[in-house]
Structure prediction request, 498 residues.
Amino acid sequence: MTHQVQLFINGEFVPSKSDRFIPVTDPATQEVIAQVPCTTADEMAFAIASAKEAFKSWKEVPVSERARLMMRFAHLLKEHQTEIAEIICRELGKTVEDAKGDVWRGIEVVEQAANIPSLMMGETVENVARSIDTYSYIQPLGVCAGITPFNFPAMIPLWMFPMAIACGNTFILKPSEQDPMTVNKIAELFALAGAPAGVLQVVHGNKEQVDVLLRHPDIKAISFVGSVNVGQYIYKTGTDHLKRVQAFAGAKNHMVIMPDANKQQVINALVGASVGAAGQRCMAISVAVFVGDSQQWIPEVAAAIAKVRPGVYTDPDAAYGPQISPQAKARILSLIEQGKVEGATCLVDGSAVQVPGYPNGNWVGPTVFSDVTPEMTIYKEEIFGPVLATVNAASLDEAIELVNNSPYGNGTSIFTASGAAARKYQHEIEVGQVGINIPIPVPLPFFSFTGWKGSFYGDQHAYGKQAVRFYTETKTITARWFDDSIPVSGPNMSINLR
Ligand code: NAD
Prediction:
């Protein structure tokens, strides 16, 4: 019997009564390692009702106790980091180090959630009028929901529910159906840390279950991370049902290389940032813009990338793992073909790469194109595979114009020895996360993850102070306490507080 992934509802792991399941496969072999249920309508209703019920008591739990829960949870995640990473390796195929990093970046958010008392401080002004004070409190919204992608099965769920729950909300998580077991392990540890029943629910499935969350009147806010088309759908449908929505979507991240940059640093940074994690990172560098004479380095960059080999997670020499599914692999191969047909020069072609002993794995070797132009499909579309497009620009101004014309705005970086060039780039670029001599500038959780343009729909971003704003409502109180020793004057006919 294949393992059946359970639901986590009202504090218990339970098998679904669904008659529909989706196979979870090992992407290096196609072996079916589990079956994930499509949660039934009754189970969805029960999960939402129990989150709503749990909210009544959870919101009354003192903020310092909520913080302590996060401290215990962070501790347990650290203790079980390797175990969680192993699940990620099996269901997603990441290398062990990469999988541990996935968990670690999530732990950092839980540590940030443990700072919730100071993050939830309101504002006060004494004497807004004579003997009248105004102060604000931040209060939780109610039941919030999260819908997460396959590529960071630990980190991205941990971007969401610890912050939401630390704020006093309860949460329903619908992880990716492609690697759902990581979240179940994390939920188990959250319960072990002392989370009361109903505070976190995990439901499984795909569009049908997401649609329930998007439309249900008891869900107050939706956090989504995934592809562009789905992100737009989530944002439109969620807001149409009068919910607060933050939707993090796809990307096409550019690295600009100035001729005064250090060549070896550029090569080292580009190799890891472009093909690392099989290119399945929303902050991966998929376009390298070589400015002026730095174009001479393209053959050396290609030679360095050509040396990188994918493999299974049990192979310590593997640089990255397989693509998540045969469909993802087929899509990437077809985009590589299109690149060739549309006239780009394929300097390194990973289409036919094989990993000995794993003939059925979703392998794509590192691939590099030069002479790419903005009209080409490989430039315009998010490939989400180990494929780097190189583009030439005559000047920094031309590079900035190119990046600013992209509909995406998740991340970008510039490699240069010039402070003036870096300053100009950080100021003029229309992208939400900028690295200066740092290829993948993902902010630590005391900042927020701030994609722009087509990479993000909403206004308050993930983790950090912005997540607290997203998961809370501000209540502003204006108060006067009468001194009984002073005689009461007549009725006040004006709305003026003086
Ligand atoms: P996806 O959009 O296919 O799936 C994401 C989630 O949405 C899953 O839980 C899935 O079940 C659900 N879903 C899928 N189709 C749906 C539909 N029609 N209606 C409602 N829900 C649906 O994304 P993916 O392939 O799992 O993840 C890769 C994508 O995520 C890439 O585009 C990547 O750039 C993006 N991503 C973005 C960020 C970011 O911070 N901007 C971070 C990680 C990944």
About this structure: Residues 147-152, 174, 176-177, 206-207, 210, 225-227, 230, 233, 248-251, 282, 382, 384, 410, 451, 455 surround nicotinamide-adenine-dinucleotide (CB under 6 Å). Residues 41-58 form the longest helix (18 residues). DSSP finds 16 helices and 23 strands in the chain.
